[in-house]
Amino acid sequence: MVGVFFHWLGGLASASFYVPYRRVKTWAWETYWLVGGFFSWIIVPWILAFWMTSDLIHVLQETPSRSLFWAYTFGVLWGLGGLTFGLTMRYLLDNLATRHPASVRICTLLHKPSRVRTLIPIEYLGFTIPDLFVVGYGLDEGERYRNLPFIGILKPGKG
C-alpha cells in the first residue's frame, strides 16, 4: 500500500512540476527532464511523505525488505528508463517476452531518429520528423498550442 501511495505522490509531484521556463529553455531536454524527475520523483515525495506520515521511518522499517527492494527497483527502472532514452521500454519488452505472448509491438506517432539512444524496433510508425520542436494534437509549449487539430513546427522565438 505504501508503494501505491508513493507512486500516486510521485505522479502528483510530476504533474505539478514547474521550473521557470525562460531560464531553462536553453537546456537540453534530457537535462530538463532529469532535473524535473529528480525533484518530482525523489525530493518532493520524501518531503510530502514525512509531512503526511507521523512516523515514516517506522513504516519503512516494518515493510518487508523484499517489497522495498522491488518497489525501489521498479521505481528506478521507471524513472531512469523514462528519463534516459527508452530503457524502460526495452526492459518492458524483455520482461513481457518471458511471458510468451502471442505478440508485443511498439508504436509511435512521431519519431525523431536523431534522438534515438536505444535500439527498439518500432513496428507501427506514424511519422518520422526532424529534430524540431512540434506542437499541437496534445503537444504543447508553455501550456499553449495543445488544442491545435494538427501537429506543427514551433519556430524558435515564436513561443
Class from helix and strand fractions: mainly alpha
Cα-based radius of gyration, to the nearest Å: 19 Å
How many strands? 4
Strand arrangement within the widest β-sheet reads: 1-2
Our count of helices gives 6
Distance between the termini: 42 Å
Structure description:
The protein is mainly alpha-helical. The chain has a domain at 1-84. It is built from six helices and four strands. Strands 1-2 form a two-stranded parallel sheet. The protein has a two-stranded antiparallel ribbon with strand order 3-4. Helix 5 crosses helix 6. The termini are far apart. The model has no long low-confidence stretch (mean pLDDT 75).
Secondary-structure blueprint:
Blueprint: H1 2-15, H2 21-24, H3 29-52, H4 56-62, H5 65-83, H6 87-97, E1 107-111, E2 124-128, E3 134-135, E4 152-153
Parallel strand pairs: 1-2
Antiparallel strand pairs: 3-4
Helix pairs in contact: 1-3, 5-6
Brief synopsis:
The protein is mainly alpha-helical and 159 residues long.
Looking at this protein, list some descriptive labels:
159 residues, mainly alpha, two-stranded parallel sheet, two-stranded antiparallel sheet
